[in-house]
Amino acid sequence: MCGIVGYVGRQKAATILLEGLKRLEYRGYDSAGLAVLQNGRIDFAKKTGRVGNLVKEAKNHHFTGTTGISHTRWATHGGVTDANAHPHLSSDDKFALVHNGVIENYSSIKKFLVSQGYTFKSETDTEVLCNLIAYHYAKEPADVGESRFLESVRKALRHVEGTYGIAVICPEAPGELVAARKGSPLILGVGDNEFIVASDVAALISHTQNVVYLKDGEVVHVTPKEFFISTLDQEDVSPVVDRVTWDIEAAELNGYAHFMEKEIFEQPAALENSMRGRFSEDGSTAKFGGLNLGPVEFRQIDRFVFLGCGTAWHACLVAEHLLERFARVPAEADYASEFRYRNAPLSGNPLFFVFSQSGETIDTLGALREAKRKGYKVLAVNNTVGSTIARETDGGIYQYVGPEIGVASTKAFTSQLLIGAMLALHVARMRDMSFADGVEYVNALKGVPALVRHVLEQAPRIKEIAHRYAHHTDFLFLGRLSLFPIALEGALKLKEISYIHAEGYPAAEMKHGPIALISEKCPSVFFAPKGEIFNKLVSSIQEVKARRGPAIVITTEGCEFPPGLADDIITIPDCHEAVLPIVATIPVQLLSYYIACARKCDVDKPRNLAKSVTVE
Ligand code: M6R
Questions:
Q1: What's the average model confidence in pLDDT over 141-154?
Q2: What is the CATH number of the domain that holds 409?
Q3: Suppose 128 and one of 106, 222, 399, 421 were both cysteines; which one would form an S-S bond, judging by CB atoms 3.0 to 4.6 Å apart?
Q4: Percent of the chain at pLDDT above 70?
Q5: Does residue 616 sit within a domain?
Q6: Is 614 close to ligand 1, i.e. is its CB under 6 Å away?
C-alpha cells in the first residue's frame, strides 16, 4: 500500500519519478506527489487522484533537478486531500519525505514537536516523522563524522514505532538521498552512476536489473556515485546485488486493455513456468528444490497448515482439500489474519505453508512470525523473489509467474492452485499413492495449460453472457468440495472489480439461509462438474430455479441437465480432480472481468483496494 520512488543520478529526476509512479499506481491511487532538489531548495507538486493528475500538475513546475522523491498514496492517516498527499516537508523546509507504512506513536511525537515549535499542515503520521528528522538535524553538530543528514534520519527512526519504507531528501545535502525500511518493502536499483529506490522492482526495471533488496532495519545513503547501507545502530552492511530475471516487457500491457485481462490470458504460460523442472525423472511425482526438508522429515509431518489472505486463502483451502483427498494427511487452511492472534493449540508435528503472491502482506507475515516464534517450520508459496516473506521463511516454492500488476489476482491464484496440487502429489507419493496413479496425476498436471487455453477460447461467449447479467446487483456463487473455494474466489473477483454484492457458499449450504436471497434479481453461478455429487448439485440448481433465480452453470463437457434448468451453461473440459479447481476458475475470472468492463469499472484499480496490503 502506497508506492514510493526516489532517484539520484544524472537525469532529470521528475521524468524518472513519474514513470516509476505510473508503474506503482496499483499500490494506491488516492493521491500522488513528487519533490525535487533544485536551486538549493525543495520544489514539489502533489495532487489528489491518479498519477495522471500529478503529471498535469508537474507541467506547471520547471522540474530540472537530478535528485528527487515521489509517492502514490493509499490513505491511512487523514483523508484524501492535497494537504495529506506526500511528499511532506518539515516546517523548516529542510526535508521532504515520502512514506509507505504507519507510524503508530505519531501522536506522542507530534505533541513533543509542537512543544518545540514545529508546525503541521496535514493530518498525517508522515509529516510527524519528517519534522522529527528536522528536529534531530537541528540538534546534530554540523561536523558530525558521517553525513549529518544520514545520522538525523537514523536518530529519528530509532524513536519510531510502526512500519515504514521511506525516502528523504535535504537541500543542504544536494545529490543525496536517504531511504530506510521496516515492515514495508524497499528495493535499491543500482545503475550506472544513478540509483533508484522503490517499493517494487516494477518502478526501476526499465533502468536497471541490478537490485539490492533492503532488509528491515536497514538504511541506505545514496549519492550519484555510490551507496552505503547500514543499520539504525550504525553497523555497516555488505550489500548483496541481485539480478532481476524478468524485464520491462513483462510489466507492459502489450495490447491488452487491462493488466487483469493480460494476466488471465497469460495463465497457460504462467502455469508452465510454475511447473518447469518440478517433476521426477520417472514422471510419477513432483519435486521442489527449496523446501529444505528431507524425505524422512517430510514423512514425519502429521498435519499441514496453510495460511494466507484473500485470494491466497482460497488457494490454501484448495490445498487443504487436495492434501486430505490425495495424501490422506490432516490439513487445514486458516486466514493468516486470524491465525496470528488466535493462539491456536498446536500439537504433533505440523508443517506450515504461507501463501502470498506479493510476499509483503502484513497479516501473512504476522502469521508466519507467530508460527516461527512457536518453533514451527514455515515454508512459503510466493511469487516475489526478495520479498519479506521469501526472506523470513525456512524455504518454499517460488511461483515464477512474473509480475502480477492487476489488483485482482488471477495468474498468481491459479499458479498457487497448481503448486498446492503438486504438493499434494509430492506428499501422496511418499505415502499411499501408487506409481501408476502418480504418473496419471503428473500427466494431468502437465496437461493443464492446454485445458486452460481451451477454456480461454470461450472468452467471447462468456463476454456475451457477462453483458446480459451485468445489470444485476447481487450474485451467489455455489460449489462443493474443491470447488467451494472457487465459488468464494468467483464472488471475491466479482465484488472487487465490479462492486456487485456477491457471496460464495457451499452449494448445499444455500438452503440453510442464502436461499432467502434468491429471486429473479439474484443470479447464481453454480459449479456442477461431473462426479459423485453431480445429482446433488442438480437438486441445488432446481431449488434456485423453483424460486425464479437465474442459474449460470459451469459444468464439464458431457454433463446433461434437465431442459430449461440452466439459463446459461459454460463447459470446461473433463479433467483430473487435482486440476479441476484451476480449470473451473477461468470462467469466473472472465465472467467477473467482462461484467466489470460492461459496468465501466476501473478494473486494474478498483476503489479502496491496493495490490499488496502492508497495513493491518
Ligand atoms: O500478495 P498476497 O497474495 O499476500 O495478497 C493477499 C490478498 O491481499 C490478495 O489476494 C487480495 O485478496 C487480492 N486483491 C485478490 O484479488
A1: 81
A2: 3.40.50.10490
A3: 106
A4: 99
A5: no
A6: no
Rounded to whole angstroms, the Cα distance separating 274 from 79 reads: 41
Which residue from 259, 361, 387, 601 has its CB within 8 A of the most atoms of ligand 1, so it is best to mutate?
361
**Rg, the chain, Cα only:** 26
Sign of CA dihedral 161, 101, 244, 308: positive
State percent of the chain over pLDDT 90: 87
Residue from 357, 397, 605 whose mutation best tests the ligand 1 pocket (most atoms within 8 A of CB): 357
- Shared domain for 194 and 277, answered yes or no, is no
Asked whether 489 lines ligand 1 (CB < 6 A), one says: no
Q: Which of 377, 412, 446 is the last residue of a domain?
A: 446
Our count of domains for the chain comes to 3
Which atom of ligand 1 is found nearest the CA of 613? 8
CA 229 to ligand 1 center in whole angstroms? 31
For residue 144, the domain's CATH number is 3.60.20.10
Residues paired with 222 in a beta bridge? 177, 227
Residues known to be catalytic: 2, 611
pLDDT at residue 1 in the model: 75
Kindly state whether residues 100 and 160 are assigned to the same domain: yes
The dihedral sign for the CA sequence 379, 382, 388, 390: positive
Q: Please give the model's pTM, rounded to 2 decimal places.
A: 0.90
- Higher-confidence residue of 151 and 26: namely 151
Q: What is the mean pLDDT of residues 507-534?
A: 93
Residue 312 and residue 275 in one domain: yes
Final residue belonging to a domain, choices 250, 272, 302: 250
Indicate whether residue 380 lines ligand 1 (CB < 6 A).
no
**CB contact at 8 A, 74 and 52:** no
DSSP state of 253: -
| In a shared domain, residues 171 and 83 | yes
Range of the domain at 370: 253-446
- How much distance in Å is there from the Cα of 168 to the middle of ligand 1? 29
Q: Are residues 112 and 27 in the same domain?
A: yes
Decide: 190 and 224 in contact? Cβ < 8 Å. Answer: no
CA 384 to ligand 1: nearest atom:
1
Which residue is associated with the grid cell 496419471?
Answer: 440
